[in-house]
Specification:
By secondary structure, the chain is α+β, with helices and mostly antiparallel strands. The protein has helices at residues 45-55, 86-95, 114-127, 132-140, 185-203, 229-238, 241-248, 257-264, 310-324, 340-347, and strands spanning 33-39, 59-68, 71-79, 99-105, 144-149, 162-167, 172-178, 209-212, 218-223, 269-276, 279-288, 294-301, 329-333, 351-352, 361-365.
Length: 366
């Protein structure tokens, strides 16, 4: 992929980095610059910089503070006086004892509240995932952003300027580059938050997803609702006593009607159903535990659908939801010698413990 850039004619005086917008002949240009300065975090430091910029007849249009180790990094957007060069601004900042990090051109349209701009950028990417590179470029004020296969990202690579790599979570990586200033952690956190949001959207946590079982049968996985009580009752009626015993650890042939609402909408949790046609053929639950970062899972798969990959698919869906809610571990109460949940977890790409703990609980790492 070839990327071409046309550099505009330089104005009078030296130019330090950045690109200047080409202005039609005879027009009066409106120039806006974004500069970054590292300074000590003590009273009066910023005031001196503001006074020096005022002496240069620069109008400050925007200002933000980025915390960095050993001080603060100030990003200031200015409209310079006619004839002023970037070299003059850099020299004035250094004369105030501040570290000059870089300067680049900015657009007046970018001068909106930072939170508003971030939310607007996220909305555009949710609506159009193909706009990811441009969204990251805007968040970082980067010179160039590319989306490449993860195997080609090479995070350790060094080159001219500054470079940072983010994992997009779908086998791709986002590579950002810019010449005018180093990237800082706060900026990286913004991009990571955006990618996390896109991951949640991609996994469609609140909606339904389709799954194909080993024999080619298609089912839909979706969250359970009170209206599913009748279908869940029928599911239990089609299950053998052995299947019910492995799920509830007590002898039962039918589920009491008063349990149905609690199965579908458990306190501190949710249920996920596997639906084929009008039938619910499997039921999974995810319930928060008091530990805070752990949740309990349970599975019930109709006998005729067992051994068909449905249990592992249902467990994987529960794990995706649990991860989005901040849980780091799943647990399942199992009978001695029972390994169905462990096999399902392995097939779902999770990391179950080799054995049950003293309470008969299988710990599953995500």
């Amino acid at each position: 992929m070839e990327i071409r850039r046309a550099r505009a004619p330089q104005r009078q005086g030296a130019v330090l980095g950045g690109w200047l917008e080409e202005v039609p002949e005879g027009a009066v240009p409106t120039v806006t610059w974004r500069l970054r300065i590292r300074m000590e975090d003590h009273p009066g430091a910023l005031a001196r910089v503001a006074i020096r910029l005022a002496d240069l007849e620069c109008n400050i249009l925007g200002f933000s503070v980025l915390p960095v180790p050993g001080g603060v990094l100030d990003e200031i957007v200015i409209r310079p006086a006619a004839g002023l060069t970037k070299a003059h601004v850099a020299r004035a900042i250094r004369d105030e004892g501040c570290e000059w990090l870089g300067i680049t051109d900015a657009a007046v349209e970018e001068l909106v509240d930072g939170s508003t701009a971030s939310l607007a950028t996220a909305s555009r990417v949710v609506a159009d995932p193909g706009a990811l590179a441009d969204a990251v470029r805007r968040l970082l004020s980067a010179d160039m952003v590319t989306v490449v296969p993860a195997a080609e990202a090479n995070p350790a690579r060094t080159e001219n300027g500054h470079r940072v790599v983010f994992e997009a979570g779908d086998g791709r990586s986002v590579v950002a580059r810019r010449m005018w200033a180093p990237f800082v952690q706060l900026e990286s956190s913004r991009v990571e938050a955006l990618l996390g949001l896109l991951g949640v959207v991609r996994e469609n946590l609140a909606g339904q997803i389709a799954m194909t079982c080993d024999d080619g049968a298609a089912v839909v996985l979706r969250q359970g609702q009170p209206r599913d009580a009748g279908a869940v009752c029928d599911l239990h009626g089609r299950c053998s006593m052995s299947t019910l015993y492995h799920r509830y650890h007590t002898g039962m042939r039918t589920v009491p009607r008063r349990w149905l609402h609690r199965l579908l909408l458990p306190p501190r949790g949710l249920s996920v159903l596997a639906v084929c046609g009008r039938d619910v053929v499997a039921l999974g639950q995810l319930v928060a535990l008091p530990e805070g970062d752990s949740a309990e899972v349970s599975l019930l798969v109709e006998d005729a659908w067992q051994g068909n990959g449905l249990g592992s698919g249902l467990l994987n869906r529960l794990a995706v939801i649990a991860r989005a809610r901040g849980y780091r571990e799943l647990s399942a109460l199992c009978l001695p010698g029972e390994d169905g949940v462990r096999r399902a977890a392995l097939r779902a790409g999770l990391r179950p413990a080799d054995t049950l703990d003293a309470n008969g609980v299988l710990r599953i790492s995500m």
